[in-house]
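Entry 14. Ran structure prediction on the chain below.
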Amino acid sequence: MILGVISSRSVQHHALSAHFVNDVQISSNIRRIERFFKEQVIAFGSLAGILLEMLTLPYKLDLVMDRTNWEFGKSPMNFLVLSVLVDGKHGIPLFWCVLPKQGTSNSSEQMNLLQKFVDVFGADRIQSLMADREFVGQKWLCFLYDQGIPFYIRMKKNRLVEWGEEDKPLAFFFQHLKTGERRLLYKEIKGMKLSLAGTRSQAGELVLIMTNQLHHKEANILKTYTKRWTIECLFKNTKSNGFNLESTHVTYPDKLEKLMAVIAVATAICIRAGQWQEKIKPTIY
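Output, structure tokens:
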């Protein structure tokens, strides 16, 4: 199935079955695929370890958490994904879950997903965790802070923080910035000592990144956060730019999670093949 996903650039059963190496009819291969999704048990923690070994990653890992969603008929498909950065430019899914709802994830769902990583590898393997403005719940931030996990999370500009006897939106402290200018602000929020790095993008939008890494300068904080974009590329590669995940007719959460496992290994193989290809030097006679 993994080779079928790579060869056909599709996750539909009939497309995968055409790439099975056997002499039986395609209908028989489709039944084999259906049995896999119905009966196969996957140890997702062990699979995450296999993925890391395949890609020979360093001990300290850069992680990104985000969500991707689409609809199949009236059925919402909503994945919460924790990916790992490879070579500073690629991402592969490491842990994931299907949310039984539409819309954003909550702090409990985010903590449960990250806890899967911590249970298998330990929090000390996390060099950085990036996430966007969906991941700003107080319980979630306290969880990261208490675990000592280095995080870089984009904040909403209307997020209120204490300032004297009143609350001020974060934008209040950075609204004077011009395009390309940066500012670093140290702030204690709900007992957490944090740094806030801000800049104004070329489009004129305020970009505010919160971190618990107080020793970093604003330029380093903002540069680290740019790694988050790798998960957007990952989602594009699993969908329209690669394996067309959105074309699946699978709707049951447990089957969707198994399908993502197949895609994760396929993605890792493609990245590994690209790494090997880059090392091959032409012979000059």
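The longest strand covers residues 61-72. Will compare against last week's run tomorrow.
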